[in-house]
Amino acid sequence: MNYLTDKHKQLSESQQSGLMLWFGGLSMDRKAIAIGLSLTVGLGSVAMAWQGTSSDRIYFCIKNPQKRLTCEDKNGRPFRMTPYYWEEWKLKGMPRQVVKDPAMGVQGLVKATNKNKPIWAFGGFIGFALAGWMLRHCQDEEKQRAVFEDITQKRDAAKAEMAARSELLESYRDVAIAEVQLQADLDLVANDRTVDIQKAEIYAQTEIKVTQMDAQDVIFEATTAGMTEEQKAEYIKQLREMKTPYLQGSQSLGQTIDPKDKVEDSEPVPIADNNAASPDAWVQNLVKQTCLIWGNQGGGKSWLARYVAKQKKEAGYRVIVLDPDSNRSEWRGVESYHSWSEIEQQIRDYVSQIEERLQTFNNSSLSEERWREKLWREGKALSLICEEATTYSDFIKDAELLEKFGKLALTKSRKQEMPLTVVAHNNTQSCMFGIKGLHNLVSKMLQVECLAEVDLVTLQPKSTGFAKVKLDSSSQWLDVSLPKMSAKISDFGTSNRPVSEEDRESLEKLYRSLEFPETKADSAEIAKLPSETTKQPIDEDSSTTEPRFTRLNLSR
Prior knowledge:
By secondary structure, this protein is of the alpha/beta class. The strands form 2 sheets. Strands 8-7-9-10-6-11-12-13 form an 8-stranded mixed beta sheet. Strands 1, 2, 3, 4 and 5 form a 5-stranded antiparallel beta sheet that branches. A hairpin with a 6-residue loop joins strand 11 and strand 12. The model is unreliable at 243-277 and 515-556 (pLDDT under 50). Helix content is 49%, strand content 11%.
């Protein structure tokens, strides 16, 4: 038996007899022999104790009045008792009708045939008790052994399972290594082919440039034919200092004959720099199309979104900004909503309005071009700027509304002049309001990835000033320069946010409090003021002490 401590062993052994300690040290076959011997002794002793009588008996009969002897009771058992009780009965007054049975021995006395009967009975008890004790001891040891056997089986099963898993993982590892090696070989072959092609292109360009240089040398020799060496030197000096319209920028002819300029490639230039007159022309793609602006923190997403919002405002759109991490002072001049309840309501309004426009267009006989012209003519061109779109699905619990909003924005917004600008941290479907089943459409939409880098001094992310643009229905990413801005745009001009009833009443009181007399025409104009009248915010930084009154915009 395994003991927890020495004290446990001492207590256990103190509760066991020396016989059981000796028995516990025997082997299993010897234990079986000992139990068999004990059972044999017990059975033999019981058999010996079962036979004969252990004491003398006096058999007697009772004489009835008819002088007949009755020697048995009603059950047929003979009347008998020990000599001790016979003598006691005689002293206490034995009836005269009781006489010894003459048929049984001498004067009815029958001697005991097994005087050691109690000893044999005790021996039988000892034999059986000892056998039961030894069996109980074996049973306890068997229970303990069964526990260890169960643990051993579980351990062996666990080892076998671990070995099988290890073998399976080893197989997976071999397959993965083989796949990686195969992919590496394929990449190496592809790189070798690419290098060979690039070498061939470089060699071809070099040959072309060398041929051009040779041709220029021939032209130069033909041009300077008949000149003296001094005249040639003067002519070369004049050409090097002369700027020609056929050279780029401030490049002179001397720079064009530099040998390094013939064989070395120039630095890559962003595509926006190709148009020197308008380096930000590519941003116009973001004004009238639904687009996604994404990138890591500090890449310039929000600054670009504000620049696009200003361009949209100048183009005539009614700009609505949904920004849960800002307030209206950051978006002066455009409609902006910042609480989640307001943002959800604006999303509902957008969905209902685009569905209404679709139904109206489908029931009309206008062409798409005329329909869009009608929307612009009626001032219904609308654009949403969705800042921090990644968090919308966390705070707006109506997932069906968000999914419908994203699908309509991606598929139906362009023809209804309701483009959407989404600002997120990634370009996955979950960042696009959790829409499902439109992965290909999201991957092909107009996207701008703003590139960030880590400042080596502050270790904070900052914008590189560059971005990558993937145009609509294209898979090619183009390098562009972000618009140059010295400060974040927070003032977008005159606000086009609808005036509430409270603001409208305040405007009427302000208008009536003016120091010039009120005319009937002015009263009529104020009475007809629509609910979407806009007002220009008062400049708080103005140093003038005279009150500045806003001009009421009645165009809406």
